[in-house]
Sequence to fold (230 residues):
Amino acid sequence: ELKVEQNPLFLSMQEGKNYTIYCNYSTTSDRLYWYRQDPGKSLESLFVLLSNGAVKQEGRLMASLDTKARLSTLHITAAVHDLSATYFCAVDFQTQGGSEKLVFGKGTKLTVNP
Amino acid sequence: ETGVTQSPTHLIKTRGQQVTLRCSSQSGHNTVSWYQQALGQGPQFIFQYYREEENGRGNFPPRFSGLQFPNYSSELNVNALELDDSALYLCASSFGPYTGGDNEQFFGPGTRLTVL
Fold:
């Protein structure tokens, strides 16, 4: 069964600092997602990474995927308070029945302090 | 283009009761997946519906059941509610059960279920 591990689970950082969230997964997958979730809200898609070496950037966030290492990173540059949220990585997993499901990590709760 | 919608937004039930949650898929999408997100956890896959049939299921007991209608909307039914069923229930729609290429699942706003 596919397992997805994120670390750290909690991250408190100061505005202006840089940090990286890591996402490891246990079996082969060609697709990895990063989502943002604000308290009480649904999931907002940030990035879809489709292949080995994929790198995507949006504003202060940059995500990368290494399928050989089964590792994705979400790098935060010069953090601002508005980035405070919980960030999830999720990996596509094809079930025996032929459907695809997303397997999520436990999430990283990011707090950016002034 | 209409996004994924869910109803109701919030729901309070007592143990032993039954509940039905509803999801309308995004325009053009024919596949609906349901996820349960307990407080402080990542979402967990419940099941997927494609062509009005269950097409894959996670580790959830049979008291979690669903339907998909010809217009691709879907229902999640939970019988004999337990306290641990309290969670945010998310549905996601996609075009087909295989999210290859740029096809991805788009999530609705969720239904917050509280079981007392």
Remarks:
- The interface with chain A takes residues 33, 35, 40-45, 48, 50, 55-58, 90, 92, 97-99, 102, 104-110, 112 of chain B (CB under 8 Å).
- The CA atoms of residues 10 and 72 of chain B lie 23 Å apart.
